[in-house]
Amino acid sequence: MKAASIRNKGLRDLINNRYLYLLAIPAVLFSIIFAYLPMVGVLIAFQDFNPIKGLWHSEWIGLDNFKFFFRGQEWMTITYNTVFFNIMFIITGTILSLALAVMLTELGKSIVVRVMQSVMILPNFISWPIVGLFSVAFFTADTGVINQFLSTIGASTIDFYTNESIWPPILVVLNLWKTAGFGAIVYMAAIVGIDKEMYEAARMDGASRLQCIFRITLPMLKSTIVMLFLLSLGNIFGGNLDMIYSLVGDNTFLTDRTDTIDIYVFRALRTSGSLGMTQAIALYQSVIGFILVITANKIAGKLDKESALF
After folding, report:
1. Domain limits at 52?
2. How many domains does the chain have?
3. Last residue of a domain, one of 41, 62, 83
4. Could you report the per-residue pLDDT of 171-198, keeping only the tens digit for each?
5. Which of 1-5, 63-67, 127-131, 144-148 has the largest mean confidence?
6. CATH number of the domain within which 131 lies
7. pLDDT tens for residues 44-63?
8. What DSSP line would sit under 137-192, residue for residue?
9. What pLDDT score was predicted for residue 177?
């Protein structure tokens, strides 16, 4: 009886909202064709894949492709680098985006603020290969802008492309420059939705601007912050291939501190040509990322139900 009632309720909902469901059909089809059907390719991770024989006739080798990746210490280094960079990107990006959003909102709707918003989001539309080309002009040992400036003031120059310890902060700063402005726009949209009467009531009680920010704005943004964090967490095992490879390339001097999973997969595919090994690494990356999202979502749901994605 209960199952029949649920079916009838679902059918009524389908009929009542038929036009909304029709609008969703293109997005559903797009997801099925480009996100779910390609997942059949995961089988390559368990095969000695031969393009001529195809997916269904290649030799099955079990977990041998995974053994190739996990047999040495290299996988620990690139996993650490991947997680480290993404955690730094998420933490610093969230803090700076929030700070920019709050500051610009407090400044009001002047022409200066609108110009600043346009300038902030501009780096988001510049591709990483273009940034990589500009970085050469800044970081080259002899003719780079930074080293020429250091020489002018009598300071010692820095050989950026052989000094691996300097690149983690460079990558974090460049990521902030490119993404923080766009992230601030998202938080500004959330701030606009906060009830203005709450601020008016707080000011009538004698609250300062700083108190309004910490007692009203930031607490009201909690759900948005958690939601964006959960979405970012899904990519914490993503290696930012376009960013890091555009800036560093195949520089062996910097491998230990800048190699991430995506770059390792890209290099392995070019050097070994084994699709099975690269797919095994990509599968490891995806499974760990999925587990992290599910775990973080459960924790967020227990702490605050409104903050969970599902």
Report:
1. 1-62
2. 2
3. 62
4. 999 999 998 888 898 898 888 888 888 8
5. 127-131
6. 1.10.3720.10
7. 888 888 888 888 888 888 88
8. HHH-TTT-HHHHHHHHTTPPP--TTT-GGGHHHHHHHHHHHHHHHHHHHHHHHHHH
9. 92
* One domain for residues 136 and 187: yes
Q: Closest Cα partner for 146 from 134, 157, 161?
A: 157
Exposed, middle or buried by CB within 10 Å (0-12, 13-18, 19+), for 113? middle
Q: Which two tokens stand for residue 169?
A: 């902060």
**Residues 167 and 282 both lie in one domain:** yes
Q: Show which of 21, 36, 62 is a domain's final residue.
A: 62
Q: Which two tokens stand for residue 33?
A: 């064709």
Which pTM was predicted? Answer: 0.81
Q: Are residues 128 and 270 in the same domain?
A: yes
Q: In the chain, helix, strand, coil percent, each to 5?
A: 75, 0, 20
Reply yes or no on whether the pLDDT at 256 is more than 70.
Answer: yes
- Please answer whether residues 157 and 147 qualify as being in contact, where contact means their C-beta atoms are separated by less than 8 angstroms: yes
Instruction: Say which residue the tokens 């700063």 belong to.
Output: 173
| 247 lies in the same domain as 156 | yes
| Long-range contacts of residues 246-251, Cβ cutoff 8 Å, at least 24 apart | 246/128, 246/129, 246/131, 246/132, 247/128, 247/131, 247/132, 247/135, 247/170, 247/171, 247/174, 248/167, 251/161
Pair (82, 229) in one structural domain: yes
pLDDT per position as a tens digit, 58-88? 888 888 888 877 877 788 888 888 889 989 9
Q: What does the alpha-carbon distance between residue 265 and residue 268 come to, in Å, rounded to a whole number?
A: 5
